[in-house]
Amino acid sequence: MDAGVMGQLRRREMASAISGAGRCRLSKVGAGRRPPPARVRVAVRLRPFVDGTDGTGDPPCVRGLDSCSLEIANWRNHQETLKYQFDAFYGEKSSQQDIYAGSVQPILRHLLEGQNASVLAYGPTGAGKTHTMLGSPEQPGVIPRALMDLLQLTREEGGEGRPWALSVTMSYLEIYQEKVLDLLDPASGDLVIREDCRGNILIPGLTQKPITSFAEFEQHFLPASRNRTVGATRLNQRSSRSHAVLLVKVEQRERLAPFRQREGKLYLIDLAGSEDNRRTGNKGLRLKESGAINSSLFVLGKVVDALNQGLPRVPYRDSKLTRLLQDSLGGSAHSILIANIAPERRFYLDTVSALNFAARSKEVINRPFTNESLQLRVLAPVKLSQKELLGPSEAKRARGPEEEETGSPEPLAAPASASQELSPLQKLSSMDPAVLERLLSLDRLLGSQGSQGTHGLNTPRRERMVLMKTMEEKDLEIERLKMKQKELEAKVLAQEAVDPKDKENSSPTMLRPLARRTVTVAKPLKKAVVMPLQLIQEQAASPNAEIHILKKKGRKRKLESLDASESEEKAEDCWELQISPELLAHGRQKILDLLNEGSARDLRSLQRIGQKKAQLIVGWRELHGPFSQVEDLELVEGISGKQMESFLKANILGLAASQR
Ligand code: ADP
Ligand code: MG
Q1: Which stretches are tagged as biased composition: Low complexity (predicted)?
Q2: Considering only Cβ atoms within 10 Å of each terminal Cβ, which end of the chain, N or C, has fewer?
Q3: How many other β-carbons are positioned within 10 Å of the β-carbon of residue 184?
Q4: Which of 153-167, 293-307, 449-463 has the highest mean pLDDT?
């Protein structure tokens, strides 16, 4: 053990003598010199071909470059590959021992120092997460290896005559659809996650089994594993639909005075598959499950991102998974995320998405992944369908600058049969347009976040962060000005509504009315901003009106913007709108368009959508692709059915009426 670690250990021991176990010891002792939050290390593991092929008939679409980087064919430009850099890369020939010894074993010793650690296997279903974490009797994975070593270590360190007595306990739970379920006691139902005064995360009621040997561990673990929620998807017969979380606690008690105690937690997590919903053919419950899975993975990505960028706010509370890991991911904890990927072309999209999730740096390399002349023919149909799919402006936005410059017409699509054997990207030619759209929007999202746009690629991290912050501030400023303008316009309208004579005198430009805003009274303003009603007023007069107003008795709702002469009578009446189905459909379509194409800022301009919901919607869209109907909003985690309905009610008429 090196001097630095010993020093740290002594500091923690001193702290524990003062204030007991936990994180607050660190914060009290280390006040003013708190260690910087630990980065989450990211490793990628590429599994070999497993479906009986050796890759000769179906060449891989991804390959390793060295022990830290890999490259993958770029679906957007056949002349390029994308090179990703990680803390470690394990190729298809790497063994279970390589991964364990390289990325997991080194963090175990920190548990005996009273620190926490976590190992998470991420990736699409079928890419090797369970193989990496659990493995098989012939090729045991991270979990059995870590348990063996940890138990051995505690036996040595806690033996008779040693200053500390050590004990190990295990808990095993799954997070399924945002519910925390105890796999050692499945009857216990959804458990709550709590935080104690020292910042330790606890799950009251979670079963903890003491273990002293590996056999004991297996005795609890194997039957509990069978309790995991699994379902059948097209991709994998027994695809895991939940995050499986094994918690191993190492508790230490000093044998002599001052009888200090300390505790280290290790989370070993086999995450649920990160694959795209539509490819798995998920519907109904499965789609809901995928929604929950993907949004918690999305939050995990944001947490890892925030930690690795040193951002002041880490959104741990946005999902159960990250809330549970709050004291074991970042902070003083040691964490490793192992992104598992598969070489087969059918995994291409999920591989790109897993790499983008895991990587915060990537580089475009100007070289074709395989034979260039073959790929030219193969990629042509993709570009065609991409242009067909998007409007001209969208398509232009989606194209990289390099494509805009080339501009030369691509050769026409080769017949599917001819391209069948050609390149790792051949499947892209027959790619579902919706999937293509998803890729494009993923690109746009990453581009807008500055983590992928070519401008930001080689910029040092700090500089990029400053740039992003400046952009964010500018966006806010623009947003603020827009709001102000809207407000002023509304006031002008209000003024005109109150005093029609003024209209004649007023200037045709916006400037004059703005200067009058101090004399605008509050009440008329209320009338003027009710946009749909203003429209009703105009349309009611027209013989082809699409909105009709019906009068009902007995209710007290008051609509003020109708004929002023009748306003008193109306105060006792209820007015109801009857809207033509065509207009409603138009409104729905506009909402759908906004949901699918609007930025978070655009979405915030809608009623009932604040900053958080806008981000949730954009995040959902990037993970799942476009919404097929407005009701899909309900699938976004954090938006209930009721909220979706009230959102629709609040927006549909306004949008239907605008620009019609
Ligand atoms: P996931 O848990 O991500 O859905 P699995 O771990 O179940 O994926 O892996 C899918 C299949 O691939 C399994 O049959 C597994 O044994 C095999 N596999 C995964 N990774 C490897 C590897 N590195 N070497 C050999 N076989 C692997
Ligand atoms: Mg699995």
Answers
A1: 408-425
A2: N
A3: 18
A4: 153-167
Could you give the C-alpha distances from 262 to 27, 160, 167, 334, in angstroms and in order?
15, 18, 11, 17
Show the tokens assigned to 368. Answer: 């074709």
C-beta 280 within 6 A of ligand 1: no
Tokens of 609: 């959508």
In the block, residue with structure tokens 């080339």: 406
What gap in Å lies between CA 84 and CA 305, rounded to an integer?
16
In this prediction, residue 372 carries a pLDDT of 32
- Fill in the amino acid letter for 345: R
Strands 69-73 and 62-64: antiparallel
Mean pLDDT throughout 490-498? 71
What single DSSP character describes residue 135?
B
DSSP alpha helix (H) spans, 258-367? 277-280, 284-309, 320-324, 348-358
241: left (phi over 0), alpha (psi -120 to 50) or beta: alpha
CA 634 to chain centre: 17
C-beta of 50 in contact with ligand 1 (< 6 A): yes
Per-residue burial over 333-352, b = 16 or more CB atoms within 10 Å of its CB, e = otherwise: bbbbbbbbbbbbbebbbbbb
pLDDT value of position 650: 80
pLDDT tens digits, one per residue of 624-637: 778 888 888 888 87
- Give all domains of the chain, ordered by start, each with its CATH number: 38-374 (3.40.850.10), 581-657 (1.10.150.280)
Is the whole-model pTM more than 0.85?
Answer: no
The beta-strand segments (E) located in 354-417 are 362-365
22's tokens: 């936990």
Q: Higher model confidence: residue 38 or residue 279?
A: 38
Per residue in 239-260, pLDDT (tens digit) is 467 899 999 999 999 999 999 9
Is the distance from the beta carbon of residue 16 to the nearest atom of ligand 1 less than 6 Å? no
| 407 has binding-site annotation | no
CB of 327 closer than 8 Å to CB of 23: yes
| pLDDT greater than 50 at residue 521 | no
The number of beta carbons lying within 10 Å of the beta carbon of residue 5 is 12
- Beta strands (DSSP E) in 541-630 are 547-552, 574-579
pLDDT tens for each residue of 165-213: 999 999 999 998 888 999 999 888 899 999 999 889 999 999 999 999 9
DSSP three-state, residue 166: strand
Cα–ligand 2 centroid distance for 125 (angstroms)? 6
Tokens of 276: 């795209």
Q: Which of 47, 98, 234, 274 to mutate for ligand 1's pocket (most ligand atoms within 8 Å of CB)?
A: 47
Q: Is 127 annotated as a binding residue?
A: yes
Q: What is the pLDDT of residues 522-579, one digit of tens each?
A: 333 333 333 333 333 333 333 344 444 444 444 444 433 333 344 444 443 433 445 6
Cα(292) to centroid of ligand 2, in Å? 17
Which H or E element spans position 414? none
